[in-house]
């Protein structure tokens, strides 16, 4: 259902060539890294955080520069020197892979991008989250099974088995043997449980 | 049917009881959503406000947009002071109204923000020269259709940007060399804007530009006989007031259509006894200007076009606000000054300055210091008269809204700039004080339990869930002001940049006390003291139990490194200043010693810039203790500029003073790094207060490894000069990082590792874990170094240990050449890291966790087992039993192990871990612009029941068991009886 409504339009544009140059007179060496962040709103669920781009930050080179995504998800860094750069996206509730961006000095305008986590090469700089992050442990809904699985439930269950199943098992044992065992028990000095309780009551 | 033998039943019961107890410990895992706020708290701050713009639309909440020194732009609710939205942007300069427009990065990035939710609408990159101060001006009336133009000027360049989409509608670069635009003024009627600039220092230029096209309509230039300092203020619509270079005279410059005429006024003729630097305060109109000297603020009025007269002078500290347009002709401004313990808030109109429209006295907490800024706002009362309110910024960076003679709300925004953190225990509970807040009402009690039951059965509505949460918070007793058994309740004492010391309760983060230290406040002579560190000064134990603990605050009285230090001692329970000391030497390094004197004062050694040590406290008792240990005290200094690490020992008494608390130092060793290949990036040592449980580590094959535990181990990281910059600036082949482990006593390098193609940042601990960027793989990496003592490796024979033929009790000395074994490993880590810390527990038994502050301002808890150099790809069965995790190339990021769960600590700077009395649990305090506190159990709470533990279920089980016992007893009795009758 997560319809990819907006297809990729803008990839990576060098500032010194193309339409953007009108905005940037005299920027001979600076390049522009422009891209888009795409978070599927339909798949966003969970802990009440809307999939809004307003709390999405884009970070260049570990904090050298920070920018924000526009409502449509576009972002840009201007005046970036040629070289290899790293772009990180910080958005609460999503895990983004950092992106390696190579801006070639010899070949102006030629920019390459690749995800560093899985080394996937990006044709366009469209960043999608690798996964959603659930910060909370989800609580199991209430069920009889979970109650029974708890230590106390197991205690009770075990006792029920002892009370009702054990006698059945005892029946299968040779009555002679039982008699013998009971004889032994009577002779032993350890007081029986029922006797103990009876004495306490009297 | 024979009954089960009763004795066996008893045994079984016992066994099951044991099993149950054992499995209880595994109940606690990560945080459930409904547990948020039980053990943790989060506070949002913005920092010291430097600009405020009011937005009072007809509909919706009234709000104010503020820009702060912590580079935060935030929208605050004017009624409550709550943050509606907030962004931390890079170094910013200016904000202007209408749409919220900010100019940042030295004027090169202009952004517009959506007022209701803080979404960025557009961003425009401007080409500006970094040296000049940029100006931002939003043209306020809609001459150009509905599109308002935003004018940005910087140097000799001027831009006009559409406020709708951020497109540059025109730009103009003036041809004049050295021109710097100082003011952009809009003509009220026509499509003309005036740009006033200075070329050189004495040539004034006035340009008239067409708003729509940016064409120069007219250009007038005028030279002045003496230079101008650049501060100009538009006095009225055609008179410009400028300060001259000596700051002793004012030029009144009048524009008359085609020409400029000027006259000069000496300030000393107007105001007597001015001292210090004179400043022109920006923008008061209707011919009123304000002049600020170090001791007074004077209001001056233009007399015609060639004279000025003083209307009123206010003694410092007084603050004047910007003018606020009330009617078309009239503007109001506020003057705030101190009067005893109160502040006086005076509102005047520029048309009639001698009269006061409002004079209110407002009582303000003494610990807020002087007023620093005031932002005036007006509102229309129900009777159509004008009312005024103002935001006041105080010396401790707090923000207050004053209205009708009272403080409506206040924000303690000094907490956004924490410098250092320490903790203090709370007072011991006195006898006779009732602790148990017994639920007196049985009905209430029953109702509470019914609600809880509903909650457990997932039948409760949202309201009821909230009620349960509130009840839990109330009953947890976490907010009491006394020490608790587990050591969870403490005071977190923080030192802020403003020199304010604030104590926060760990239960809910409320402020217990605060104190703005007089010794750290800016003095009249203009020196700016800075707060440095905070230490525990006296931690009373058995002998001096009746005394309150105290803390030591170390500061500097000036900005440069040779400025004398200031010390101040505060009571931890009340925040009162017990003692304040102005030192006669500077503070270069503070070494908290592990020694204590007889009154339980912690000894501190302060090293000054001449590398002399000074001992505090200055008492004969402390001196005796210290002299005893002096020969074993070594210190090292890291000189980043000279690229040298030096080790020193202490010698008795200084050379040329008879101060017996002063010690000279002798250089023992030094390591000089070749500055063309290595630059010191970072040095780190072990935390002095860290507790280590055992020296031995038993590994899988029943073998023992001995940890090399030396308090004198220093970790130093150097990077190649080219790699010292940002990530994109160096090629992999010219960047490397070298990590050293150095013994601080002898200067011996114990270990050295080179990471090619790597560059900082680095952080370290006991075993060293550091984080750096690998340029070849282009990913961040974390590396671990563990260091083991090989000389003790043959102490494995039990017989030897019994017979005493071991060397475990032999004294450890740094002078013998240590035989060490070093293991290291490195892993990929996804994020950039802002801070790393390690969990500290009371006895050091619990497994450690690394607390990693990520670039997304979250804190990730990573088990130390993931950064164990003994990890291998295929661990043997034995190693698996030991808990060694198979080696992976990257460290895992598990979302549920984020300590901060779904919160962010904006602009995270530091993580502090504080041991509690309970071995399993540590307290974690994270600070940046926000504060976050939580309780963490790295190996789960194995020594206590969790809050989640269901006592009701336990009771029910016990009751059921007892019932079963009684039932079986009756049954067996009956059986026996019938057997006997038979």
Automatic annotation (TrEMBL), chain A:
It comes from the Eukaryota. The chain crosses the membrane at residues 142-165. One of its GO terms (cellular component) is EMC complex. SUPFAM superfamilies: Starch-binding domain-like. Residues 181-191 have a biased composition (Polar residues). Residues 1-22 form the signal peptide. Residues 180-202 are annotated as: Disordered. InterPro entries: Beta_sandwich_EMC7, Carb-bd-like_fold, EMC7. It is a single-pass membrane protein. The keyword Transmembrane applies. Its main location: membrane. It holds the Pfam family EMC7_beta-sandw. It is found in: Membrane. GO terms for molecular function: carbohydrate binding. Residues 52-155 form the ER membrane protein complex subunit 7 beta-sandwich domain. Keywords: Membrane, Signal, Transmembrane, Transmembrane helix. Belongs to the EMC7 family. This is ER membrane protein complex subunit 7 beta-sandwich domain-containing protein. The lineage of its organism: Eukaryota, Viridiplantae, Streptophyta, Embryophyta, Tracheophyta.
UniProtKB/TrEMBL annotation, chain B:
The chain crosses the membrane at residues 949-972. GO terms for biological process: protein folding in endoplasmic reticulum. The keyword Aminoacyl-tRNA synthetase does not apply. Residues 30-413 form the EMC1 first beta-propeller domain. One of its GO terms (cellular component) is EMC complex. It is found in: Endoplasmic reticulum membrane. Belongs to the EMC1 family. This is ER membrane protein complex subunit 1.
């Amino acid at each position: 259902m997560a319809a990819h409504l907006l297809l990729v339009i803008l990839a990576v544009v060098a500032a010194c060539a193309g339409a953007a140059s009108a905005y940037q007179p005299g920027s001979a060496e600076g390049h522009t890294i422009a891209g888009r962040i795409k978070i599927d709103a339909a798949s966003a669920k969970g802990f009440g955080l809307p999939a809004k781009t307003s709390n999405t930050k884009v970070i260049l080179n570990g904090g050298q520069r920070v920018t924000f995504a526009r409502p449509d998800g576009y972002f840009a860094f201007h005046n970036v020197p040629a070289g290899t750069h790293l772009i990180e996206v910080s958005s609460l509730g999503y895990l983004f892979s950092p992106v390696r961006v190579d801006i070639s000095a010899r070949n102006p305008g030629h920019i390459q991008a690749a995800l560093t986590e899985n080394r996937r090469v990006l044709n366009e700089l469209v960043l999608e989250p690798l996964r959603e992050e659930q910060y909370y442990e989800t609580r199991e809904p209430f069920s009889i099974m979970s109650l029974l699985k708890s230590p106390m439930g197991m205690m009770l269950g075990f006792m029920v088995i002892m009370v009702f199943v054990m006698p059945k098992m005892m029946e299968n044992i040779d009555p002679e043997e039982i008699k013998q065992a009971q004889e032994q028990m009577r002779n032993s000095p350890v007081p029986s449980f029922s006797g103990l309780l009876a004495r306490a009551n009297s | 049917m024979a009954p089960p033998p009763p004795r066996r039943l008893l045994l079984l019961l016992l066994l099951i009881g044991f099993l149950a107890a054992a499995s209880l410990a595994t109940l606690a895992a990560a945080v459930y959503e409904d547990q948020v706020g039980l053990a943790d708290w989060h506070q949002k701050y913005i920092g010291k406000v430097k600009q405020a713009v009011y937005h009072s639309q007809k509909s919706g909440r009234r709000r104010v947009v503020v820009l702060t020194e912590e580079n935060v732009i935030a929208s605050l609710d004017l009624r409550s002071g709550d943050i509606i939205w907030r962004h931390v942007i890079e170094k910013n300069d200016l904000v202007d109204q209408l749409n919220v427009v900010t100019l940042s990065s030295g004027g090169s990035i202009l952004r517009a923000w959506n007022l209701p939710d803080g979404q960025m609408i557009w961003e425009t990159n401007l080409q500006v020269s970094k040296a000049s101060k940029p100006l931002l001006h939003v043209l306020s009336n809609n001459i150009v259709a509905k599109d308002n133009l935003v004018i940005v000027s910087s140097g000799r360049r001027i831009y006009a940007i559409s406020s709708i989409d951020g497109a540059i509608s025109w730009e103009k670069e003036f041809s004049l060399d050295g021109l710097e635009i100082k003011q952009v003024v809009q003509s009220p009627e026509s499509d003309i804007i005036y740009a006033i600039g200075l070329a050189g220092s004495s040539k004034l230029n006035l340009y008239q530009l067409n708003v729509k096209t940016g064409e120069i309509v007219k250009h007038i230039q005028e030279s002045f006989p003496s230079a101008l300092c650049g501060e100009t203020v538009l006095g009225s619509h055609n008179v410009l007031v400028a300060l001259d270079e000596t700051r002793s005279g004012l030029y009144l410059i009048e524009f008359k259509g085609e020409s400029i005429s000027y006259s000069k006024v000496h300030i000393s003729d107007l105001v007597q006894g001015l001292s210090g630097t004179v400043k022109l305060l920006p923008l008061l109109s209707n011919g009123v200007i304000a002049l600020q000297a170090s001791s007074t603020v004077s209001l001056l009025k233009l007399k015609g076009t060639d004279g000025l007269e003083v209307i009123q002078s206010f003694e410092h500290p007084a603050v004047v606000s910007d003018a606020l347009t009330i009617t078309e002709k009239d503007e109001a401004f506020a003057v705030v000054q101190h009067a005893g313990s109160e502040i006086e808030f005076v509102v005047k109109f520029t048309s009639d300055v001698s009269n006061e429209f409002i004079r209110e006295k407002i009582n303000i907490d003494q610990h807020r210091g002087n007023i620093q800024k005031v932002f005036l706002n007006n509102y229309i009362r129900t009777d159509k008269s004008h009312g005024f309110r103002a935001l006041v910024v105080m010396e401790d960076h707090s923000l207050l809204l004053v209205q009708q003679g009272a403080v409506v709300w206040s924000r303690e925004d000094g907490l956004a700039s924490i410098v250092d953190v320490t903790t203090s225990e709370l007072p011991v509970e006195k006898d006779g004080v009732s602790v148990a807040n017994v639920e007196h009402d049985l009905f209430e009690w029953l109702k509470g339990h019914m609600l809880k039951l509903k909650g457990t059965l997932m039948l409760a509505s949202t309201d009821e869930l909230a009620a349960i949460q509130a009840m839990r918070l109330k009953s947890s007793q976490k907010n009491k002001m006394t020490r608790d058994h587990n050591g969870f309740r403490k005071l977190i004492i923080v030192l802020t940049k403003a020199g304010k010391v604030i104590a926060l309760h760990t239960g809910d983060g409320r402020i217990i006390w605060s104190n703005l230290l007089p010794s750290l406040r800016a003095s009249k002579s203009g020196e700016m003291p800075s707060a440095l560190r905070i230490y525990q000064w006296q931690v009373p134990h058995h002998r001096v139990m009746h005394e309150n603990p105290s803390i030591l605050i170390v500061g500097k009285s000036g900005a440069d490194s040779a400025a004398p230090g200031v010390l101040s001692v505060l009571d931890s329970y009340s925040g009162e200043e017990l003692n304040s000391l102005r030192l006669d030497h500077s503070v270069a390094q503070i070494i908290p010693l592990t020694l204590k004197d007889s009154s339980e004062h912690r000894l501190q050694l302060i090293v000054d810039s001449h590398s002399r040590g000074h001992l505090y406290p200055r008492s004969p008792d402390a001196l005796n203790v210290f002299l005893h240990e002096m020969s074993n005290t070594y210190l090292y200094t890291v000189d980043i500029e000279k690229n040298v690490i030096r080790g020193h020992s202490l010698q008795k008494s200084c050379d040329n003073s008879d101060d017996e608390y002063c010690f000279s130092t002798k250089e023992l060793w030094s390591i000089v790094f070749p500055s063309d290949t290595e630059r010191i990036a970072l040095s780190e040592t072990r935390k002095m207060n860290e507790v280590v449980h055992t020296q031995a580590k038993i590994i899988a094959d029943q073998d023992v490894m001995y940890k090399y535990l030396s308090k004198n181990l220093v970790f130093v990281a150097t990077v190649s000069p080219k790699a010292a910059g940002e990530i994109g600036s160096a090629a992999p082949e010219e960047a490397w990082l070298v990590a050293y482990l150095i013994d601080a006593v002898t200067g011996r390098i114990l270990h050295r590792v080179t990471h090619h193609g790597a560059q900082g940042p680095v952080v370290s601990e006991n075993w060293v874990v550091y984080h750096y960027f690998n340029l070849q793989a282009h990913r961040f990496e974390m590396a671990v170094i563990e260091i083991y003592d090989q000389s003790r490796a043959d102490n494995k024979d039990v017989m030897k240990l019994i017979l005493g033929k071991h060397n475990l009790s032999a004294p450890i000395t740094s002078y013998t050449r240590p035989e060490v074994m070093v293991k290291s490993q490195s892993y990929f880590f996804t994020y950039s890291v802002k801070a790393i810390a390690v969990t500290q527990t009371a006895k050091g038994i619990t497994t450690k966790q690394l607390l990693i502050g990520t670039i997304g301002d979250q804190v990730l808890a990573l088990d130390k087992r993931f950064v164990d150099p003994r990890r291998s790809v295929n661990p043997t069965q034995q190693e698996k039993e030991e808990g060694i995790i198979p080696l992976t190339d990257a460290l895992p990021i598990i979302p549920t192990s984020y300590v901060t769960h779904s919160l962010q600590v904006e602009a995270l700077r530091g993580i502090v871990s504080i041991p509690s009395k309970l071995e399993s649990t540590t307290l974690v305090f994270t600070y940046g612009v926000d504060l976050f506190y939580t309780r963490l159990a790295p190996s789960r709470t194995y020594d206590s029941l969790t809050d989640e533990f269901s006592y009701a279920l336990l009771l029910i089980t016990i009751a059921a068991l007892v019932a079963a016992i009684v039932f079986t007893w009756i049954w067996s009795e009956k059986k026996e009886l019938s057997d006997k009758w038979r």
